[in-house]
């Protein structure tokens, strides 16, 4: 393919993606609305895309930028002079490393566990799965915040880490970090605050005079914090920070291996070769926006959040799950309104809002992560008409027999053929067997919603497995030169 062909094809491929600018994609991406900063960051990503953070002596530029980002973050999280940090590829990697480091700091514990509220991000369950650490889940109270007494009661001799969120993704509220950190400290256990989403907003919210539950290193007992640059620092994707109160806490996160004939592998993260692109992109963004810039962006996003929360509270048919404490809003729908249809109607109007399936006795909801670039008035106008359209469309019925089948199916017993049938029945495969998403997702979500979590996982893993297959022909043309 020629360079022109490739550019044209890339542009065509991107047309099917959600927009990353405009403030209307309210999950996955975060938009500062600052075109110049964005352009600068992309230049920085391109300039360092081939540099390798594997060896900081070979690429000292990357080390310098990483240390600078950690220093900037220290001012946000009340970090003591001893605070250190590591740049990772994203929130999940930061959370994984917090768990791995905690596990490896306690070689004396034979059956390590972590204590987490049920609202903790799924990344901690992934960490438990990867690192052979038991995840002890503590139910949250009616306010969706972790219950400190229940967390304290769940800590035992096997506990290597306790986690709190600032804020939790699903509900957007901050856990009572002081009480949880105190309970962990009383047992000599590490306490991680997952501020992946709030880390670059809550400090500015506090500076703007808003009430913010204490969650930083100013809280005694907090030993590590994750905060994502690629969320509310508005950096290009692939950048998060894992911060530790002191170097000794970080030490078990490091991996070195000299017992082979090659170079001594020395890593601070799960990755070994690490592109310099995200580091440079994050550094350029943070330095271009700066402290004052972030204060303004936080004010914009928080004011938009207030307006959106107030608008939802006033909108017949929808109710807030909780009063937002940062920039996340979740809302449930009345019985006569299908919340998944509201999401579809929003998509038809150019807004991506994320459906959240029911969990335990919690109703399904819609979820938005509001960016500085989000126009609250336009959002509420679209939401109002989406609710009307969804109400007019009526409920999305799930056949009682199908619902019963989904509730009772044992996912472990399902082979590929059964999973294929389920995918077809759920509308995730066309008549020709071709996989893809239907125009409207509400019928799929309605089916997933009646399925227990383990069945949802099995069906969606099967879906992903079948999507991620090489196509028989290359995307376009030939990869051989000149054809
Ligand atoms: C609280 C929290 N923790 C962890 C993560 C995982 O971050 P990532 O998607 O960057 O891996 C998220 C993502 O939304 C989050 O909100």
Automatic annotation (TrEMBL):
Residues with the N6-(pyridoxal phosphate)lysine modification = 231
Q: Which GO terms are recorded in the biological process aspect for this UniProt protein?
A: carboxylic acid metabolic process
What's the protein called, per UniProt? Glutamate/tyrosine decarboxylase-like PLP-dependent enzyme
Which InterPro entries does the entry link to? GrpII_AminoAcid_Decarb (IPR050477), PyrdxlP-dep_de-COase (IPR002129), PyrdxlP-dep_Trfase (IPR015424), PyrdxlP-dep_Trfase_major (IPR015421), PyrdxlP-dep_Trfase_small (IPR015422)
Keyword Lyase (UniProt): yes
Family membership noted in the UniProt record: Belongs to the group II decarboxylase family. Sphingosine-1-phosphate lyase subfamily.
- A family per Pfam: Pyridoxal_deC
Natural source organism: Nocardioides kongjuensis
Please name the GO terms that the record assigns under molecular function: aromatic-L-amino-acid decarboxylase activity; pyridoxal phosphate binding
| UniProt keyword terms in alphabetical order | Lyase, Pyridoxal phosphate
User: Keyword Transcription regulation: yes or no?
Assistant: no
Q: Which cofactor does it need?
A: pyridoxal 5'-phosphate
């Amino acid at each position: 393919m020629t360079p022109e062909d490739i550019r044209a094809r890339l542009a065509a491929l991107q047309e099917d993606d959600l927009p990353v600018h405009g403030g209307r994609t309210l999950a996955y991406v975060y938009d500062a609305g600052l075109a110049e900063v964005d352009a600068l960051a992309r230049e920085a990503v391109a300039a360092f895309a081939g540099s390798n953070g594997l060896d900081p002596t070979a690429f000292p530029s990357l080390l310098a930028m990483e240390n600078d980002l950690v220093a900037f973050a220290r001012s946000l999280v009340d970090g003591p002079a001893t605070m250190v940090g590591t740049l990772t590829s994203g929130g999940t990697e930061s959370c994984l490393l917090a768990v791995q480091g905690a596990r490896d700091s306690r070689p004396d514990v034979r059956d390590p566990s972590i204590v987490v509220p049920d609202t903790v991000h799924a990344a901690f369950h992934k960490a438990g799965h990867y690192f052979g650490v038991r995840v002890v889940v503590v139910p949250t109270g009616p306010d969706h915040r972790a219950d400190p007494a229940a967390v304290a009661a769940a800590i035992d001799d096997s506990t290597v880490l306790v986690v709190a969120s600032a804020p939790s993704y699903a509900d957007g509220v901050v856990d009572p970090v002081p009480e949880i950190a105190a309970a962990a400290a009383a047992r000599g256990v590490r306490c991680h605050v997952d501020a992946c989403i709030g880390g670059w907003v809550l400090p500015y919210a506090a500076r703007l005079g808003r009430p913010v539950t204490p969650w930083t290193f100013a809280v005694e007992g907090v030993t590590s914090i994750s905060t994502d640059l690629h969320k509310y620092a508005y950096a290009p994707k692939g950048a998060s920070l894992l911060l530790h109160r002191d170097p000794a806490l970080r030490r078990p996160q490091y991996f070195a291996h000299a017992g082979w004939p090659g170079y001594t592998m020395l890593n601070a993260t799960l990755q070994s070769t690490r592109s310099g692109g995200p580091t440079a992109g994050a550094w350029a963004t943070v330095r271009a926006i700066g402290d004052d810039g972030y204060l303004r962006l936080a004010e914009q996003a928080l004011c938009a959040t207030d307006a959106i929360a107030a608008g939802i509270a006033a909108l017949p048919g929808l109710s807030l799950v909780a009063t937002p404490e940062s920039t996340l809003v979740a809302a449930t729908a009345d019985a006569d309104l299908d919340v998944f249809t509201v999401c579809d109607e929003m998509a038809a109007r150019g807004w991506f809002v994320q459906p959240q399936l029911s969990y335990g006795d919690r109703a399904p909801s819609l979820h938005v992560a509001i960016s500085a670039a989000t126009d609250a008035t336009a959002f509420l106008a679209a939401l109002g008409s989406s609710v009307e359209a969804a109400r007019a469309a009526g409920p999305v019925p799930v056949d009682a027999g199908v619902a019963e089948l989904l509730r009772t199916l044992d996912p472990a017993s399902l082979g590929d053929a059964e999973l294929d049938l389920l995918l077809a029945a759920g509308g995730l495969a066309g008549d020709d067997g071709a996989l893809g998403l239907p125009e409207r997702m509400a019928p799929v979500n309605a089916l997933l919603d009646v399925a227990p979590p383990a069945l949802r996982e099995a069906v969606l893993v099967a879906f992903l497995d079948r999507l991620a297959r090489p196509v028989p022909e290359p995307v376009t043309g030939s990869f051989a030169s000149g054809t």
